Amino acid sequence: MNIFPKLFTAAILVLCSTLAALAAPFGKIDTPPLSERWFGIYVNSERVGFYRQRIDKTDDGYRIDGNGSVRIKVMSFSKEASMRETYLVSKNLSLRSFDVEQTINNSASHLSGKVSGSAILIKGEANGRTTSKTIRFKGDVYPGPTLNLYPLMHGVTAGKSYKINAFDPEELKIKEIQITVLGEDKTTEGLPALKLRNTLYPFANNDIWVDGEGNTLEESVREGLVTTRVEQPKALGAFISDWALAKKDLIYDFSLVRVQPPIKDPEKLAGLAVEISGWKDALPLLQGREQQIEKIGNERILFKTCSLARTSPGSAAEKPAVAELKPADKIESDAVEILSQAKTLAAGANDQEKVAKVLVSWTAEWLKDSIDDGGSALESFKSKSGNCQTHARLYTALARAAGIPTRFVSGLVYLKGKGFLYHSWAESFIGDHWVSVDPTYNQFPADPTHLKLLEGHLPEDLAPIVAIIGRISITVVEAAY
């Protein structure tokens, strides 16, 4: 029996929530909470994923956006999924249209549809095939992310039950769901809440705790087997950034940033200029020889790379720090094995540029790509596998061992035909300037689609990515060839 989709749906079926303050008195609310919130997903108390949701007001209702990812292991059963969803609903929360993408064990699907009269017209895409389906219904139908809100939008009384039609995009069915108000209670963390229960999952209790404004605080399926609870983005930062940087290739992912128009022949680019919307001012604007960033409006920046960047080669700001030649946590450039390998690879190369190029190529070939982080440079040197962070770590250690100042950097890189992915690579100081190199994709120098956002390899260095995941959009302004 394929239990994972149900666990995944249960884990992410949450609405916006608040960490502040005590709950408001429980009664009828006129509108859903309009904000963005993050949730941690747990199986048997182990964090296995996250979900982010945002509710915005539209002219005739509300827009609900969500994206997240889950990795679950139960006995010998193991599955991984990423998803993103958008629902447009009326002022009474009834469904108007939807767009849902998900990838389960690298199998991608895309489902979209709209309500027309008393029917939902659905279009599906999976494995290169397109299908159509019409589902008819009576009355109103509601998407999953509105179920926890429904009782408060209609007034709550302990013991009262509601029966509504819920659309299940996974099974392409409309189900009659009963939602019962159990009464005032507290979450596992002691927050005052109103406890609800629904029949979304057969033979299992789906318990929900919400505050008086309609914010979901916690959700539990199968007496706590799967729980979802509100968390501060900062607390999830390192966890989410690690997942966002986990893949070299994908079809759809929670962290994929689509771009318009698509970039043609990225391997032939000499320079790139893009506008990023949804930017958070708390993030640094890292300037350098290969990139120039300019703030151009509210939450908007203009990003130029390589031939389109305004640069000052050899400026003081470009010079390496002492630490960029020394060993560091998980970058063991002083380990005997790393020193020996660097010496072997550098033999015969008569300048640092040639040495760096050899190290990039060797790292790309030595490490087998995997979703999981392969650990430190020394650990991955021995295991021969890891994700892009692993590649960047091993290359950085080898380069420092070879006497080349090198730093670990992260940001976005374009995947042809898909969009921008969050990614880690490295920069080496060669001659009088920093050169971007990518030991995952075997690029020396790295192509102009590498948009550097952060420097540093530690969890706290990478955590700020959470501020823009799922928020930003990218528009190509100019592509130079």
Number of helices: 8
Major sheet: size, sense and barrel closure? 15 strands, mixed
Number of beta strands = 26
Q: Are there runs of 5+ residues with pLDDT below 50, and where?
A: 1-7, 10-24
Multimeric status of the protein = single chain
Strand content: 35-45%
Q: In which order are the strands of the major sheet placed?
A: 8-7-6-5-4-3-2-1-15-14-13-12-11-10-9
The class by helix and strand makeup works out as alpha+beta
CATH architecture group name of the largest domain: Roll
Helix content: 10-25%
Radius of gyration: 25 Å
Measured distance between first and last alpha carbons: 52 Å
Query: What count of structural domains?
Result: 2
The outline comes out as elongated
Describe this structure in words.
This protein starts with a helix and ends with a strand. The protein folds into two domains: 4-231; 237-480, C8orf32 fold (Roll). Strands 8-7-6-5-4-3-2-1-15-14-13-12-11-10-9 form a 15-stranded mixed sheet, with helices on both faces. Mean pLDDT is 88; it is low at 1-7 and 10-24. The protein has eight helices and 26 strands. The chain is an alpha+beta fold and 481 residues long. Strand 22 (406-415) and strand 23 (419-430) form a beta hairpin. It has helices spanning 4-12, 150-154, 233-244, 336-346, 352-366, 377-383, 388-401, 459-462, and strands spanning 36-43, 46-58, 61-74, 77-90, 95-104, 107-116, 119-126, 129-136, 141-143, 161-168, 173-186, 192-198, 206-210, 216-221, 226-231, 259-260, 271-277, 291-297, 300-306, 368-369, 385-386, 406-415, 419-430, 433-437, 451-455, 473-480.
